[in-house]
Specification:
Elements (H helix, E strand, L loop, with lengths): L2 H9 L8 E4 L5 H13 L5 E4 L2 H9 L13 E7 L2 E2 L5 E2 L6 H9 L1 E9 L12 E5 L4 H10 L3 E4 L1 E2 L2 E2 L7 E6 L6 H9 L4 E4 L1 E2 L5 E6 L2 E6 L1
Parallel strand pairs: 1-2, 1-3, 3-6, 6-14
Antiparallel strand pairs: 4-5, 5-13, 7-11, 7-12, 8-11, 9-10, 14-15
The structure holds ribose-5-phosphate.
The site of ribose-5-phosphate has 17 residues, from strand 3 and helix 4.
């Protein structure tokens, strides 16, 4: 079993009967979703709130009942992946472009668990370019301001076209190389008109389950 599968499947053991569960996006939480689907087939009763169209499709294909965020009072537990995380459980997310819905769902969740393989754990954030979701209008200007903040920005594309998020926006990947002050950077980026949100998740996750070789390690706050 690889590290992603180890971590992803372990996280499913935190899901309990009757919970509303935020279902993250990506290749690690994929394994959580498949495991939850198996548990549902064996009688577990949960409702999922998907963080992306991709996850919605996966969950429905595997028989997990879903509900819209608007229809729940809160989410008991969200399980999601990360592109980078440090020992304070500050995360960089958005490698798959799902950061905005992921953050909205994390915000409305009582608990959040992160699942990742060991390559995602870093002492200094920022080697992974920070994804920033921007509205299409005037995006080149928004990109220029991001560059002035000290990064090398590049507009994300897919199959020779600009990548479009589930919310109809673009993603600018900002190579900062190092992010020593995540809170300050988070605030500064989100103040730029045209920016919808960025992939720094600060203060959301309380536990990380990391696949490490053939074992699992935990990071907790
Ligand atoms: O937009 C995508 C998400 O933030 C993912 O959770 C993140 O990119 C990690 O994905 P993976 O588990 O595939 O590395």
């Amino acid at each position: 079993m690889n590290e992603k599968q180890l971590a992803g499947e372990k996280a499913a053991s935190y899901v309990q009967d009757g919970m509303v569960v935020g279902l993250g996006t990506g290749s690690t939480v994929y394994w959580t979703i498949l495991k939850i689907a198996e548990m549902v087939q064996n009688g577990l009763s949960i409702t999922g709130v998907p963080t992306s169209k991709e996850t919605e499709k996966l969950a429905l294909e595997h028989g997990i009942p879903l509900i819209a965020l608007e229809e729940v009072s809160s989410i008991d537990l969200t399980i999601d992946g990360a592109d980078e995380l440090n020992d304070e459980l500050t995360l960089i997310k958005g490698g798959g472009g799902a950061l905005l819905r992921e953050k909205i769902i994390a915000y409305h969740s009582t608990h959040m668990i992160v699942v990742a393989d060991s390559s995602k754990v870093v002492s200094d954030l920022g080697t992974f370019p920070l994804p920033v979701e921007v509205v299409p209008f005037g995006y080149q200007k928004t990109l220029d301001v991001l560059q002035d903040m000290g990064c090398e920005p590049s507009i994300r594309s897919k199959n020779d076209s600009l990548f479009i998020t589930d919310n109809g926006n673009y993603i600018v990947d900002c190579a900062f190389r190092s992010i020593p002050y995540p809170s300050t950077l988070h605030e500064r980026i989100n103040q730029i008109p045209g920016v919808v949100d960025n992939g720094l998740f600060i203060g959301y996750a309380e536990k990380a389950i990391i696949g490490n070789g053939s074992t699992i390690t935990f990071l907790e706050k």
